[in-house]
């Protein structure tokens, strides 16, 4: 069976698909959304003056960044400008305080953008309870796949434990293993299992393929047992960036002009109406949802493609240019990115451990703080 994200669902796996419909339903129900905004606004308005200051908006901006999958503000210069842009959406870059009406309008736009993104690229919530892992280690695929993994592993100290830990890291959610690099999974699943499931080391003897297969199967069976007692919930998403989103946008002049004008609306201009090329990245980022692209700073492979294109069209010279020329360069950038992706599509699969079933991809944003 194919899921909304394109991955196959096993007979055992329990899953929930987040496709943006809950967010859309919230925003489109005027009465419910107004109540939600009232509550969120009151929660953020610490001084109860009926307006939100820049400092009071920061928790909402941080929640939006997290919902977009960005690293925490201050940890990456590549993505920090996106947080600034989100804040500027609320304040229009100049206002020190934001009214409830302004807050509601901007939040509605942002949530609808998230819903559109999830409709295009749904997130699947998986409950991993050991059944798939046990099926894998007892099935016909176990030996050939683990032999392949064994041949890929370079063990620094040559211990059996080291081989097993590295092999666990190469299993996927499709094989029933939650992301073993996650700190929660390490401390609650992997380490307790390694301690309780005795693996006999081979002293100074080299680890053979046969020894590895037997020991790993024993350990994986113990992991499956622990997952049965303590299931792990994982948010799984898959996406392939192949340039089709850009092609659709470029082929629809009405939508292209609308998206371009909206993206340019808040870009500073001099008294002659000219813009700095320094803002090309900002405008490209604003166009990203319409072009089927991720936010800048979210995916390293995509950031490299964008950087290469910017160098190719010499976009970082900081020159001040007319708006028509700015748009022309932006179209050249989009076209170049499209060609790069058509030739070398970028496929991304991500798995994040969560600790309760999600109703939306932005739990903190859409729920009151504790």
TrEMBL record:
Pfam families: EF-hand_7 (PF13499). Coiled coil: none annotated. This is EF-hand domain-containing protein. The keyword Manganese does not apply. It comes from Dipteronia dyeriana. Residues 32-67 form the EF-hand domain. GO terms for molecular function: calcium ion binding. Keywords: Calcium. InterPro entries: EF-hand-dom_pair (IPR011992), EF_Hand_1_Ca_BS (IPR018247), EF_hand_dom (IPR002048).
């Amino acid at each position: 069976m194919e899921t909304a994200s394109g991955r196959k669902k096993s007979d055992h796996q329990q899953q929930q698909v987040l496709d943006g419909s809950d967010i859309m339903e919230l925003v489109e129900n005027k009465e419910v959304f107004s109540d939600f905004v009232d509550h969120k606004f009151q929660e953020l308005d610490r001084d109860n003056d009926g307006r939100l200051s820049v400092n009071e908006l920061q928790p909402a901006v941080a929640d939006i960044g997290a919902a977009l999958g960005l690293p925490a503000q201050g940890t990456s210069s590549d993505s920090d400008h996106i947080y600034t842009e989100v804040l500027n959406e609320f304040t229009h870059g100049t206002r020190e305080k934001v009214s409830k009406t302004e807050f509601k309008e901007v939040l509605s736009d942002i949530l609808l953008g998230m819903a559109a993104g999830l409709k295009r690229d749904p997130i699947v919530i998986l409950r991993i309870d050991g059944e798939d892992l046990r099926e894998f280690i007892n099935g016909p695929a176990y030996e050939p796949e683990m032999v392949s993994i064994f041949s890929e592993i370079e063990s620094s100290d040559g211990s059996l434990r080291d081989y097993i830990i590295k092999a666990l890291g190469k299993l996927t959610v499709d094989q029933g293993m939650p992301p073993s690099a996650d700190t929660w999974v390490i401390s609650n699943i992997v380490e307790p299992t390694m301690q309780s499931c005795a693996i006999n080391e081979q002293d100074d003897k080299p680890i053979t393929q046969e020894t590895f297969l037997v020991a790993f199967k024993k350990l994986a069976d113990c992991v499956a047992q622990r997952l049965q007692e303590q299931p792990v919930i994982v948010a799984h998403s898959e996406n392939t960036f192949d340039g089709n989103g850009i092609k659709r946008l470029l082929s629809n002049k009405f939508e292209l002009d609308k998206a371009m004008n909206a993206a340019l609306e808040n870009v500073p201009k001099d008294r002659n109406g000219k813009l700095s090329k320094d803002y090309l990245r900002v405008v490209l980022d604003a166009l990203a949802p319409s072009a089927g692209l991720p936010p800048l700073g979210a995916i390293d492979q995509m950031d490299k493609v964008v950087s290469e294109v910017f160098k190719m069209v010499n976009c970082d010279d900081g020159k001040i240019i007319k708006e028509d020329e700015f748009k022309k360069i932006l179209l050249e950038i989009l076209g170049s990115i499209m060609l790069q992706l058509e030739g070398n599509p970028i496929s991304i699969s991500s798995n994040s451990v969560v600790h309760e079933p999600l109703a939306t991809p932005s739990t903190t944003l859409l729920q009151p703080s504790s």
